[in-house]
TrEMBL record, chain A:
The gene is hypD. GO terms for biological process: protein maturation. This is Hydrogenase formation protein HypD. One of its GO terms (molecular function) is 4 iron, 4 sulfur cluster binding. The lineage of its organism: Bacteria, Bacillati, Actinomycetota, Actinomycetes, Micromonosporales. It comes from Catellatospora bangladeshensis. It holds the Pfam family HypD. InterPro entries: Hyd_form_HypD (IPR002780), HypD_1 (IPR042243), HypD_2_sf (IPR042244). Belongs to the HypD family. Keywords: Iron, Metal-binding. It comes from the Bacteria.
From TrEMBL, chain B:
Signal peptide: none annotated. This is Hydrogenase assembly protein HupF. One of its GO terms (biological process) is protein maturation. The lineage of its organism: Bacteria, Bacillati, Actinomycetota, Actinomycetes, Micromonosporales. It holds the Pfam family HupF_HypC. Belongs to the HupF/HypC family. It comes from the Bacteria. The gene is hypC. GO terms for molecular function: carbon dioxide binding; iron ion binding.
């Protein structure tokens, strides 16, 4: 219980921590994966691992949409952006993600017209204001952001905007979780389910994890107490011999998700046969593309896209970090060759990436912890 | 991008029922409410905003807790808020 200080409700946290410790069977190690990068951020920022008994280990998952974009897709986007008629629009999170031939920021410095936007609707506005240019939106994200892209494409079609298209890189969380469950190098005891994704998809899609794989899953909120509470709920299930899907974040996540958003998604986007994930390789039915009805707005049909697969740099171990096989500090280049200023891998770029979160918060705690242990 | 930002609805735009004006930390911005059920929210309600879209209705206590959480994470939130402030959707 060292370094338990700064966050509010510390007393409640200590009470939860005591209950968590009491639920652990002696000699058993519990490995829980937090799927969502937002959870990883909270865990490192508040040093939640310091609250947990050593028997309870948190494993970081693939739920950072920036982190899982393979280098080849960054290169494809840059190839589109280099065309003189194109304005490429992107969320700020993507700007420093390295491709095989530099990042969006590098391409922008070299003359490509790449603009940061907060919302796909901002990209649509740029298209309206620049009728002589082709405006392409670099769409990324899980089910949290995919409905927003879908609504934007519906609007573009309704307005007949011929100079707007989407380079679609939306991914879906369920196949990634399944890939991890099927992976031989990872043994997990349960999952903290992603909070915001579940706002859209609800809790029902996780049922196979409990029923088929016999692992409990608790959809968790983002505050420190939410995460501790969810860990307590996972341990309670294991103690009772139950494997269920439970919703700790019911104050935001409805069990059935956002039905309107799911309808819009189904209208505009459909599953690709397969998609490459950084570190996880090709996963079938794990990403979205525009449906036939909206094919005119698909940048991959409008422009020649190289579509070349680019292997990650040999030194980069983002793949192992994304699968939870390695902790950030176990990567060979962590904090030396790879830092948030000069990232080699995606996990160091996004604030939700495990490496960036650990670099910004966790490593100081760990250093302190190691110093104290050495005394 | 993944951060959900709480905002208080201050106006539903009558000519554009898919848009609402919200107040986020004192900044007034238009957001899209087309992913919520028609009539699900009104003035004074709180919503969680992702990339310019309200994705869920939340209560005020949750909004305050979410805002405290966002402020605690520092740069990532500041960047997201700055991006929202520059966003002028219509």
């Amino acid at each position: 219980m060292r370094f338990v200080d700064e966050f509010r409700d510390a007393e409640q946290a200590r009470a939860l921590a005591a209950r968590i410790a009491a639920r652990c069977e002696p000699g058993r190690v519990y490995k829980f994966m937090e799927v969502c990068g937002g959870h990883t951020h909270t865990i490192y920022q508040h040093g939640l691992e310091d609250y947990l008994p050593e028997q309870v280990q948190l494993v970081h998952g693939p739920g950072c949409p920036v982190c899982v974009i393979p280098m080849g897709r960054v290169d494809d986007a840059i190839a589109i952006a280099r065309r003189p008629e194109v304005i490429l629009t992107s969320f700020g999170d993507m700007m420093r993600v390295p491709g095989g031939d530099g990042s969006f920021l590098d391409a922008k410095a070299a003359g490509a017209d790449i603009r940061m936007v907060y919302s796909p609707l901002d990209a649509l506005k740029i298209a309206r204001q620049n009728p002589g240019r082709q405006v392409v939106f670099m769409a990324i994200g899980f089910e949290t952001t995919a409905p927003s892209t879908a609504v934007t494409v519906q609007r573009a079609k309704a307005e007949g905007l011929a100079n707007f298209s989407v380079f679609c890189n939306h991914v879906t969380i369920i196949p990634a979780i399944k890939a991890i469950l099927d992976s031989p190098d990872q043994r997990l005891d349960g999952f903290l389910g992603p909070g915001h994704v579940s706002t859209v998809i609800g809790c029902e899609p996780y049922r196979f994890i409990a029923e088929h794989y016999r692992k409990p899953l608790v959809v968790a909120g983002f505050e420190p107490l939410d995460i501790l509470h969810s860990i307590d709920m996972l341990l309670a299930q294991l103690g009772d011999g139950r494997c269920e899907v439970e919703n700790q974040y019911s104050r935001v996540v409805p069990w059935d998700g956002n039905v309107t958003a799911l309808k819009v998604l189904a209208d505009v986007l459909e599953l690709r046969p397969f998609f490459e994930w950084r570190g996880l390789g090709f996963i079938s039915h794990s990403a979205l593309k525009l449906t036939e009805a909206y094919a005119d707005f698909d940048a991959e049909r409008r422009f020649d896209v190289p579509g070349v697969r680019v292997a990650d740099p040999q030194s980069c171990q983002c793949g192992e970090v994304l699968k939870g096989v390695l902790k950030p500090w176990e990567c060979k280049v962590f904090g030396t060759a790879c830092t948030p200023e000069t990232p080699i891998g995606t996990c160091m770029v996004s604030p939700e990436g495990a490496c960036a979160a650990y670099y910004n918060f966790g490593r100081f705690r760990r250093q302190r912890l190691l110093q104290v242990s050495a005394r | 991008m993944c951060l959900g930002i709480p905002g208080e609805v201050v106006e539903i735009m009558t000519d554009r029922p898919d848009l609402a004006q919200v107040d986020v930390s004192g900044v007034r911005r238009a957001i899209n409410i087309g992913l919520l059920e028609p009539g699900e929210i009104g003035v004074g309600d709180w919503v969680l905003i992702h990339v310019g879209f309200a994705l869920s209705k939340i209560d005020e206590a949750e909004a305050r807790a979410a805002m405290d959480f966002l402020k605690s994470i520092g740069d990532a939130y500041t960047d997201e808020l700055a991006a929202l402030q520059n966003s002028k959707i219509d």
